[in-house]
Hints:
Elements: H1 2-27, E1 37-43, E2 46-50, E3 55-56, E4 59-60, E5 65-68, E6 71-78, E7 85-87, E8 94-97, E9 101-105, E10 111-114, E11 120-121, E12 127-128, E13 134-136, E14 147-150, E15 155-160, E16 163-169, E17 172-174, E18 182-185, E19 188-190, E20 199-201, E21 210-213, E22 215-217, H2 223-255
Antiparallel strand pairs: 1-6, 2-5, 3-4, 7-22, 8-21, 9-10, 9-13, 9-17, 11-12, 14-15, 15-16, 17-20, 18-19
Amino acid sequence: xxxxxxxxxxxxxxxxxxxxxxxxxxxxxxxxxxxxxxxxxxxxxxxxxxxxxxxxxxxxxxxxxxxxxxxxxxxxxxxxxxxxxxxxxxxxxxxxxxxxxxxxxxxxxxxxxxxxxxxxxxxxxxxxxxxxxxxxxxxxxxxxxxxxxxxxxxxxxxxxxxxxxxxxxxxxxxxxxxxxxxxxxxxxxxxxxxxxxxxxxxxxxxxxxxxxxxxxxxxxxxxxxxxxxxxxxxxxxxxxxxxxxxxxxxxxxxxxxxx
Length: 259
């Protein structure tokens, strides 16, 4: 019965993590470029009372007697499916249709990666994120430019005096395991040993998506699915709490036994 208490407690902790992950998904339902996460669990060690195949009465035991010791978190997996596109009609809002990440330069000079393509121009015409991180490679839009045209291949052109002139080329990055990227907030991801090193290239090259101008990528969170997950986590949490209550009642009955 003491084992049941700890096993049920591990189940409650697991569902708390499940609830935390689901709540974060729902909180970011309108976050540009956000990718929902899924909590994954695995069973813990087993207490073996009898091994299968053990000799017994001239034969062998056909099945073992094992009692599980609960559940623990295995991973929180980021789901990288494409979110819906939202038309903004802003010439510096971009979407990656397919694989890839935009590269931005952080204050310490290192690169971070994002699917959030809602860029702005600073006082020098440079494309940057809402937090002031410059797009890498750096692209500057001349103050005299009337229109900005960004092609599907990432070529940035401006209309000056009725003539289109190229002012830069957007590059994308991809990873062999994008789920292994480390989320650091502000819609930014950084590489890890699990993600591998970034492979860069131009849009529409092999393995890279294309650029769509005037759109942003919405979160890929599906509210109905997350609400269902929320209910499942809550009911599982309640069931584990009932197990603790039942084990406690059984211990109470054992303590009140008299000779």
